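Request: Could I get any protein with tokenized structure?
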Amino acid sequence: MKALGSFAFALVAGANAIVTRWAPCCFHLSASGAVTGTVGQLDDGQNRINGPLAPAQFCIADGAITDAHGRGCIITPGVTQYQCDNGVPPASGFSIGCDGTVAYNGVTTFWECQTGDHGEANIYIHPGGINCGEITLKADS
């Protein structure tokens, strides 16, 4: 009987682990490096560092990030900007390390480029404008 109880406990614990693994993990982002600050969003889904924007909430599941409005977060073709768009499936390839460091396709280096708008900076995976600097993104818990 003791073996049956242990088996049942292991089965329930294993089932809970499976549910937890597939559940989305939600977080806020902050940047450090050339600029330091929290990541907020414009109404159109552009992710920006600093300025008067409230911290944005994101969720990751299976390597894909969505924002609190359900928009898919992508790396835009061409300019490689990190933003979240309506009606677009989220890009895969994102991960969050044990220390909260965000990576895209295994690379933890991102770039900020100043917008000239309220001290805000857009986020890119490659430097693509003027006044750009290297940053690291971290997720909180």
